Predict the 3D structure of the following.
Amino acid sequence: MAGKGNNIRKIAISTGGGDAPGLNAVIRAAVVSALHEGWECVGIRDGYNGLLEPDRYPEGGLVRLVRSSVRGITHLGGTILGTTNRGDPRAYPVQAADGSWSEVDRSTELVQAFADHGIDALIAIGGDGSLAIANTLAEKGLKVVGVPKTIDNDLEETQVTFGFDTAVTFATECIDRLHTTAEAHDRLMVIEVMGRYAGWIALHSGLAGSADAILIPEIPYDLESVAQVIRRREAAGRHFSIIVVAEGAHPAGGAPSVIGNDIGQAERLGGIGHRVAAELQTMTGKETRTVVLGHLLRGGSPTTRDRILSLRFGAAAVRAIREGCLGCMVSLDPPEVLYVPLALVTKRIKTVPLDSDTVRTVRDLGVSLGD
Ligand code: F6P
């Protein structure tokens, strides 16, 4: 974190990686606060594609953001700027004439593009991938402030990311709905939720939604222990069970279930819900159904909590630039929003601590964690 952030006249905002409810609220707060400072604001389309591939955009890869551009968007999901998880400038996918793909480092060219457009500082809103890119740009001399986004809540150095509360709230509502149909049909219902290699969404929605078993990547599972819970419930006259499975969960000694590994993209997880359901059906003899909540968790309006967090983060990012706190990320450390060095954030992902009070509560309530 270095340098004084004054002498700013123009800032850019980018949204990168998977979308999360609250992106538009961050953009609105950042733009309104920046305009108060007297700064000009532009948005970069689709991560950094607006700067790296301007020809793709007939109306220009940069969008001028004025007061009217951000009116009435706090409650809207998605992002008015667009996003991509295929646009890492450090490993940018390029297609050769023969159709094959390779990756080239375009990060130096990107830093130059900011200068060419007279952009003095960048607010980069994203998850671990986008913030690692932001850190590289900061190391190459760009004035950058990051904002932690992801429904997965797997970012270090912030108590929570925006988007998580909305995803958990919706997942819990879905589990509530699935309870009644599971009970009506005496079925097992397996619900797969996103979260990558962290179990935050599964743990929180499973606890709030009274699941009977919650499988998270941090605790490799043995399905026999889940089957025992189901059999015990059966013997007690409870003929249905709810099992919440994080997409990154895996059996003890086994690997996560992967459905894709495209060039320029992170490994795509998926399929574990169906696997768990098929095995539990065989082990218990009970009729089983699977629901994969997937991208539904990323859509819709942000909750009140996420709106407020997003607005606070957007305003704080502008404050950080004004105060010259650069190469940092805004972070929730209740009750404050602080700035932490970007380099610290991207070292590793934040997984569920096994000695946390939430995990203890799950165990105290007799909910199986599959171990
Ligand atoms: O990082 C958010 C996330 O929603 C993960 O939970 C999930 O694995 C991933 O994005 C899927 O992203 P996409 O389908 O956009 O590649």
